[in-house]
Amino acid sequence: MDQSAVDQQRRAPDALVSYVFPIYNEEGNIGVLYREMQQVVRDLGHRVEFVFVNDGSTDASLDILLAIAAHDARVRVIDFARNYGHQIAVTAGIDAAVGDAVVIMDADLQDPPEVSAELVREWENGWDVVYAQRRSRRDTAFKRITAALYYRLLAGLSEIDIPRDTGDFRLIDAKVAGQLRRYGEHDRFLRGMVAEIGYRQKAVLFDRHERHAGTTGYPLRTMIRFAADGIMGFSSKPLQLISRIGTSMAILALVGIVYALVRRIVYPDAVVSGWTFTIIAVLFVGGVQTLMTGIIGSYVGRIYTEAKGRPLYGVRAQYGVPTRAIAPTG
Ligand code: UDP
Ligand code: MG
């Protein structure tokens, strides 16, 4: 099929756009989100479905979702058996989505609903991955600084080109979603996986808002773990770093030995002094070795997780049917 035929198909009113929302304790946001989305999808000119993945919320999120699903056939709810984390929730949403395009958005209104319409426009123009790139963000200074440093580190380490200042807010074409479904890895870093898949990718700039209500579901510990998934999932450079550090330390040791020998020969009577130096040297070597073992351990742990081959998630119940199964109305 040539490109203009693809564009034609994407512009057709019966083209279906799936929205995927991961939900973890978002009782204060779902209502507003759903309301704002109504306006956006009215102007979209496509059929839509909303796939909400309830990731083991402990508040009233599920009840609110079910109430919405009860009167809107476009709404589907996937209720997880427990909390599996944001990346897995998004994965389940993509797995379930049946649209010609899939939009992934946070449910806390940090990703502005109206920007999703811009993503759809670029998809109609022929782009297969349209990611929303932050022009600015309203987060704590700590988060902004660590994120900026992290994305620069990741760019330096990883073997693929992961766009800076992007989260998971993006649109992917059905064929990208299909390819993504074949990625079975457990420690998921979706933005990296999408970058690796390729296709025609396009950035749309936007200003990221503050969280509307509630608190972040990403405590620091989870954030660090996620950051490590990004680096280790897309780079083996930390492992190469180990041999580099090892080599440098061996060279340093050699210099020390030669120095000690020469001193011994030139001044045979000199007293060997320097407890402090000995202890520092021992602690230094011990510390570096432990760190290096830790790096290896992080990779081994991830290999172990993959080796067990457990399912990515468990679903307690599903509500609603895929929009494709419903006859299109005018
Ligand atoms: N989320 C989830 N499972 C979790 C944590 C978060 O599904 O274990 C959802 C959350 O409801 C939101 C999105 O993932 O829609 C982003 O989470 P959050 O806003 O807490 O992260 P932050 O924006 O602070 O990085
Ligand atoms: Mg958020």
From TrEMBL:
GO CC terms of this entry: plasma membrane
Transmembrane segments: 241-262, 274-300
Bilayer disposition of the protein: Multi-pass membrane protein
Subcellular location: Membrane
UniProt cross-references to Pfam families, sorted A to Z: Glycos_transf_2
Entry keywords, A to Z: Glycosyltransferase, Membrane, Transferase, Transmembrane, Transmembrane helix
Residue ranges of every copy of the Glycosyltransferase 2-like domain listed in the record: 19-177
GO molecular function: glycosyltransferase activity
UniProt superkingdom: Bacteria
Annotated InterPro entries: Glyco_trans_2-like (IPR001173), Glycosyltransferase_2 (IPR050256), Nucleotide-diphossugar_trans (IPR029044)
Family, as annotated: Belongs to the glycosyltransferase 2 family.
Name of the protein in question: Glycosyltransferase
